[in-house]
Amino acid sequence: MEILIKQEVLKGALQNLIPVIDKSSAKPILSNFLMRTIPDQNMVEFLATDHELSLIERFPAEVRAEGSMCVNARKMYDISKEFVEEEVRIQSTEQLWIHVSCGKSQLRLPSVDVGLYPQTLVEDLSGKVSISTNDLKRAIDMTLFAAQTNESRRNLMGVNLSAKSGATRWLATDGHRLAQILISVDSLEMGDVEDVIIPRKALGEVRRSLELFGERVDVSFDERVMQFSGENIVYKTRLIEGKFPNCDPIIPKDNALICSLDRERLMNSLRIVSSISAEKLRPVKLTLSSGKMLLESEKTDYGEVSDELQVEYASEDFQIGFNSRYLMDVLSVMEEENVKLEFKNPMSPTVIRDVEKDDFLSVIMPLRIEW
Amino acid sequence: MEILIKQEVLKGALQNLIPVIDKSSAKPILSNFLMRTIPDQNMVEFLATDHELSLIERFPAEVRAEGSMCVNARKMYDISKEFVEEEVRIQSTEQLWIHVSCGKSQLRLPSVDVGLYPQTLVEDLSGKVSISTNDLKRAIDMTLFAAQTNESRRNLMGVNLSAKSGATRWLATDGHRLAQILISVDSLEMGDVEDVIIPRKALGEVRRSLELFGERVDVSFDERVMQFSGENIVYKTRLIEGKFPNCDPIIPKDNALICSLDRERLMNSLRIVSSISAEKLRPVKLTLSSGKMLLESEKTDYGEVSDELQVEYASEDFQIGFNSRYLMDVLSVMEEENVKLEFKNPMSPTVIRDVEKDDFLSVIMPLRIEW
User: Fold this and answer.
1) Which of A112, A203, B20, B302 is deepest in the core (most CB within 10 A)?
2) DSSP state of A205
């Protein structure tokens, strides 16, 4: 194999691959990436996988000899990003040494037998969703924060995708809070499955790389795997096995105490009131009365803080506690100027929505507050 | 004590104090700062110390009742930076509670008896140097990188200041490399001392806060302490006890093999050639021949890298090794386009200078290379 490739292209390709590469050294083969020429096209394919998530990218290059190679991704990236000349020449030898040169810079790296690297095949899968890049960005941003981060319940460590009234429903929960967004798409075909659970890492990587997809992303899946495809890029991930819980009964339908207020101002007050707390989840008490919301920290030896906000609220006086971390998480991904909090009582889940748009909602369990 | 102070001013004042505050929790009193009104002036003084380094700042405020208070710096900062209204009211009570309010935000913090907080007095000291802020910045940047970071030789953990031919000499070394800069100043009075050793932390903090000093910094010192004074700011630090080694014999005078080259290009090549190394100090071999410098990494199972640079060099062919980390450190603080390397032989210290200016030099011990 021998190619000439632009330094910027090589650097970009490797930069995308690095986060997919397995960080643990348990399987040394996974610290490598695979590069191969596409027959009869002046293109090379880059491939990295950690067995769960794979990335396949194609970039233009001048192919002088067809072939493939498998080489350490981190080393190749660390060096190629420093190259100053425009063009990089990469050549493999029969002795499994890779020669790389750029201007006067010369590099010789050991490589691995290509046959040892796990294969990733792009498949034709029966589930298909075509979604605009912007909508996919929103689907991920508005739900991923609520997915579980620890391994105690693996089926909650991702975002649940299903169909609802002809739209896609994206849903995540960690048992303390839930986030759901409904997004209409041009075409939606669930194939043989009712719903799937997409792992956090895959969504995080796709989100980070969205600008590589162009305007649309073709999502395809079956009960095992999901592919996110653009013109010259495919992320393929295993799906999380297991059943996602039915969250519909948890989403309150009749919360009648409704308060709307400025989102940024609420975030600012939460930061003020929670800043003194030594606890990780930073409990805060909200007291609602006509037109006003009082926020208070617990009174401790370390001190106490309170803040007061103008709000739209005309129902009965009412008091409720929350982990302010959970409120902050959802408020910080929302985009509108005003948000609506819908309460029922101090023990029941509270709903947070945009005031204008109704495609998104988040549910947060309150915190029992005895101060 | 009761004052009204601008939120921006309070936030800025605390932001400066935070890095001085002791990070360890060994002495809880040192997590606090002291604030006191200046009698008959609408000014407040902020003071923080870790016993080694102290910062005293003065800012305008509306003083409603004279007094002083001592309160947790981190908490006060975390909250006050979130305040949105312009003016903050701070009031102490006899029960040692501090009341802080800004708009509708209310805060109550416990405070500490002011008498328990260590005093820092600004003194009149016999050693005096008046230096422009820009020159002090250069003095610190061009030397501090070479000071020792570990405790094995405490007398090397700072920058040595002395007088040489009417100028100030700033010098640091860790035994492997040395950096020295001579800076002319308007007034220079060493008082009762020949030289002093200024600790790393003090220089780092002064460097970070230089824009608060205005155009000049008045440095004053005796054998125990040093003060860096601006109009409304003073850093006071203990000096490092002990004798700084006489470095003059180490600085080569007759290195005759002279090579000059582009500084950025050399840094780039060092990054390329050292990027493959698994060792922390990243050894590199330089081979000089007429007009050329070849840089090579060690040949290992992990691969090998080389790069070649155009240089001005007309002496005999010559080979020498270095820890590329040490070369990078000095090259990255230098400012000119071209640098000069002065060699004698592969075992002797090498000198690095600017091609134009002659006020700075760095000396690096070569590395015995057997490949």
Assistant:
1) A203
2) H
pLDDT (mean) for A28-33: 94
- ipTM of the modeled complex: 0.85
CATH for A2-116 is 3.10.150.10
Q: Which of B292, B334, B357 is nearest to B143 (CA)?
A: B334
What pLDDT shows up at residue B24? 78
What pLDDT score does A53 carry? 97
Determine the distance in angstroms separating the CA of B299 from the nearest CA of chain A, rounded to an integer.
9
Contact call for A275 and B79, based on CB within 8 A: yes
pTM, two decimal places: 0.90
Q: Does B305 touch chain A if contact means CB atoms closer than 8 Å?
A: yes
Determine contact: B93 vs chain A, CB below 8 A. Answer: no
Higher-confidence residue of B189 and A279: namely B189
A85 touches chain B (CB under 8 A): no
Torsions phi, psi for B58 (to 5 deg): -125, 135
The shortest CB-CB distance from B272 to any of A83, A109, A304 is to A83
Residues in B touching A265 (Cβ below 8 Å): 84
**A268 and B CB contact within 8 Å:** yes
From first CA to last CA, the distance across chain A in angstroms is: 71
CA atoms within 13 A on the CB side of A311: 30
Q: H helices of chain A, where?
A: 7-17, 73-80, 133-141, 200-208, 263-274, 324-333
Q: Count residue pairs from A and B with Cβ separation < 8 A.
A: 88
Distances (CA, A) of B293 to A35, A221, B285, B290, B310: 33, 55, 10, 8, 7
> The domain B127-247: what is its CATH number?
3.10.150.10
Taking an 8 Å cut-off on Cβ atoms, the answer to whether A304 and B107 are in contact is yes
A217-250 b/e (C-beta count within 10 Å ≥ 16 → b): bbbbbbeebbbbbbeebbbbbebbeeebbeeeee
For testing contact with chain B, the best of A10, A77, A79 (most B CBs within 10 A): A79
DSSP at B288:
E
Q: Is the pLDDT of residue B22 over 90?
A: no
| pLDDT above 80 for B158 | yes
Question: How would residue A3 be classed by pLDDT, with cut points 50, 70 and 90?
Answer: very high
**Which among A75, A265, A305 has the least Cβ separation from residue B79?**
A305
Task: List the 99-138 stretch of A: residues with Cβ below 8 A of B.
Answer: 104-110
Cβ contact B105–A309 (<8 Å):
no
Lowest-pLDDT range of A71-75, A77-81, B189-193, B277-281: B277-281
Q: Domain residues of chain A, as ranges?
A: 2-116, 127-248, 251-364
